[in-house]
Amino acid sequence: MWLQVFLLCISCFTLSTLSQTQDRASLHRSNDRAGRCQYTFTVASPEESSCSGNNMKPEVDGVLSRLTLLEALVSRLIAGEDGGAGTGVGATEEGLQEAFTQVTGERNQLQQDKELLNRQVQELQRRLEELSAEAESLRHKPCQQTHISGGNPRENRPASDPAFDIGNGAYQEMKAEVTEVPASHLIPEGNFTGCGELQSVGDPVMHRKADSITGKYGVWLQDPEPQGDLYTNKTAWRIDAVGKDVRQLFAYEDMDQFSRGFPMKVLVLPEPVESTGATMYRGSLYYQRRRSRTLIRYDLASEKLASRSDLPHAGFHGQYPYSWGGYTDIDLAADEQGLWAIYSTSKAKGAIVISQLDPESLEVKRSWETNIRKNTVANAFMVCGRLYTVASYTAANTTINYVFDTATGEGRAVAVPFKNKYRYNSMVDYNHAQRKLHAWDNFHMVTYDIRLGRANQGRR
Q1: Concatenated DSSP letters for 365-410?
Q2: DSSP category for residue 27
Q3: In terms of pLDDT, which residue wins out, 182 or 446?
Q4: Distances in whole angstroms, Cα of residue 282 to Cα of each of 48, 78, 150, 225
Q5: Which residues make Cβ contacts (< 8 Å) with residue 50, sequence separation at least 6?
Q6: How far apart are CA 137 and CA 125, in angstroms?
Q7: First-to-last CA distance in the chain?
Q8: Which residues face 365 on adjacent strands?
Q9: Sign of the C-alpha dihedral, residues 3, 5, 7, 10?
Q10: Is residue 435's pLDDT more than 80?
Q11: For residue 404, which phi and psi values (nearest 5 degrees)?
Q12: How far apart are CA 398 and CA 393, in angstroms?
């Protein structure tokens, strides 16, 4: 019985202890840093009211170990970034050095190519000058007859051939025809003073250089047939054609004053001038009014507008200019046969049209249409009723490449050497009294001596 009472007491004490323990225990459920569900069971100590300091040492040691590991990782990261930056800078420097070497090599190669091209251009210019000189020499040299080579012709022909019978009349007649020389060929060219075809043009002679931008291109002339006593054939006239309202006409007493740049008078024209197509003839200045097809005759003695007239259907202000532009649609010219207009129309489709004008009324007397386009030539002028065109306005050595004869109505290609010494020839005009060409070449006012010959000498 005592044993049963003892067991009952032990059971009561155990249940009491369990009940107190359950009162002090707790269960917690929460997510950890990784997002997983975590259960925590906490039981209060029945004997200790607080934990001693020695129990915290493992946790502190764990934190310290984690800090040490973090410092090592940060040190490695810093060392890696520094190394990567250094590698990038080195690579960049190597790339720049390689690019610089490549560019330098290409520059040196281009310089060598430029020098080679310059040498080739100089060689071509030298050869062109030699060929031009040779062509000029051949042009002036009379043709000489030559015998057919191949030994004695009697060796290859029968003795009965009548052509070798010296006494044969037919043979004698043929021989005379072959050796005959036209009498006109024996006349020295220097004695030819009449109208004829252009044979040669001399080198340009510079008389004056413009001293401002307004003299880039212009007109300068001398009247081949002056009227009255106020002005003579020695009087020089000049118009600077650069500007929107060109009206000033400078008069110089003679070529000496012209070369010095001392005008004796400045005339103000009643209407503005268009480009470089003006000409001087019989005491009047003939020019095109700006932005129109109107032609004006300005009398130099009275200093008044003498007459005006529209040139029928003529293009103007950039419709049909010469190849250098400059609104050179209408070019007026004078020669031994009178006053001329060189221009084009829509009907001619840009081909050069030549019209002979009445010098008093400016009415068209007769017209001819050529087969050369106006914008393919640099300039044109009239000599003895023939139109001549200049191939280029910038090439130092160019040619007069076409002639049209108004007497026959026929045109053909020619090749008379012509020099643009200053590389921008904007005006060419013929003075038949002096037998010279007046030209305005890139600020420079120059003249060319020309030589004429009989028409059959110019044909090839």
Answers
A1: EEEEEEEEEGGGSSEEEEETTEEEEES-SS-SEEEEEEEEETTTTE
A2: E
A3: 446
A4: 142, 99, 63, 5
A5: none
A6: 18
A7: 166
A8: none
A9: negative
A10: yes
A11: -130, 125
A12: 8
For the chain, what is the radius of gyration of the CA atoms? 52
Which H/E stretch holds residue 449? strand 444-453
Residue 261's pLDDT band, with cuts at 50, 70 and 90, is very high
Strand partners, 273: 289
CA-wise closest residue to 318 among 298, 288, 362, 356: 288
320-372, pLDDT tens digit by residue? 999 999 999 999 999 999 999 999 999 999 999 999 999 999 999 999 999 99
In degrees and rounded to multiples of 5, residue 171 shows phi and psi of -65, -40
Torsion angles phi and psi, residue 290, rounded to 5: -60, 135
Closest C-alpha to 241, from 265, 263, 200, 269: 269
Rounded to the nearest integer, the mean pLDDT of the chain is 81
The 10 Å Cβ neighbour count of residue 424 is 16
DSSP category for residue 201: E
276: CB partners within 8 A, 6+ apart: 217, 218, 219, 241, 326, 328, 331, 426, 427, 440
Q: In the block, which residue shows the tokens 């984690």?
A: 66
Asked if 327 and 382 touch (Cβ cutoff 8 Å), the reply is no
Contacts of 230 (CB under 8 A, 6+ apart): 300, 301
Report whether 406 contacts 388 (CB < 8 A): no
Token pair listed for 388: 């001549």
The string over 195-209, giving b where at least 16 C-beta atoms fall within 10 Å of a residue's C-beta and e elsewhere, is bbbbbbbeebeebbe
Number of C-beta neighbours around residue 305 at 10 A: 13
What's the CA gap between 209 and 16, in Å, rounded?
A: 134
Return phi, psi of residue 389, to 5°.
Answer: -115, 145
Mean pLDDT of 97-117: 81
Is the Cβ–Cβ distance between 389 and 351 less than 8 Å? no
Burial (Cβ within 10 Å: 0-12, 13-18, ≥19) of residue 449: middle
Q: Is the pLDDT score of 151 beyond 80?
A: no
* DSSP bridge partners of 206: 446
Q: What is the pTM of this model?
A: 0.61
pLDDT band at 289 (very low <50, low <70, confident <90, very high): very high
From 437, 435, 439, select the one nearest 426 (Cα to Cα). 439
**Pairing mode of beta strands 248-252, 444-453:** unpaired
- How far is residue 222 from each of residues 8, 187, 281, 364, measured CA to CA in Å? 157, 31, 9, 24
